[in-house]
Write the structure tokens for this entry.
Amino acid sequence: MIELKGVCFQYDSMATNALSDIDLTIEDGEMIAIVGHNGSGKSTLSKHLNALLLPSSGTVFVNGLDTKDEKNVLTIRQQVGMVFQNPDNQLVTTVVEEDVAFGPENLGVAPDEIRTRVDYALETVAMSAYAKSAAHHLSGGQKQRVAIAGMLAMQPQVLVLDEATAMLDPKGRADILSTVRAINRSRGITVVMITQYMEEAVGCDRIVVMDHGKIARIGTPVEVFADVEALTRLGLDVPEAVTIREAVKQLGLPLDNSVLTTEALAEALCPLL
């Protein structure tokens, strides 16, 4: 779906590269997390996935289209939708259903098709009951759901969430994460999550760990969270369940590295008690 080959990027105000020699393939239908400390390059990388930023060197392909070719940009941005941190910055109208319809209208989609897309998108994010509501009366999590619905109404093949849960409380983060996972599994939409919360990365197919503009580690959650010391050296936390797992292993009790969540930890510990 998306392929980055030797991608480097340097901001005009910086003396060093924000990205260096990035080689990464994101598969169709995959759910992938990109994590890293502040300044690691994860958000810069995300903005290369739909041509918001163009590589200083190297190439990014989206469905075979080169992002540096200007005639491809509109098609690429229709295929790769982005949701950012602050939902208030993404809502452009005062009524929920009108906001979701905004994107398709600007693409010239027929009115009947727009109605179908809006209904589908709001149902997918469990916001149908708020279709006629004023967007500014919604909670932060609900606003973020509307922002996601607005992207879905444009029928992208890839959904990129650039720290889209960073401004939400724990319940809001959990709700958005559940919605995004359902979209990935039921609709087959490729999801790329840029996140600082390692618990969010646990449920993804793969995790990319960024450090100083480079890919430091990449693998399944089991593979990445197998080496807690390496993640700590990179300035990253690990899920609480993984911390407890490692402490229990230090006591000599046999726990598998596949234990990544509280539920899995409970299931593994109960037989040992």
Observations:
- The CA atoms of residues 141 and 172 lie 5 Å apart.
- The mean pLDDT is 92.
- The first strand starts at residue 2 and ends at 9.
- Strands lie at 2-9, 19-26, 31-36, 57-62, 65-66, 80-83, 158-162, 190-195, 206-211, 214-219.
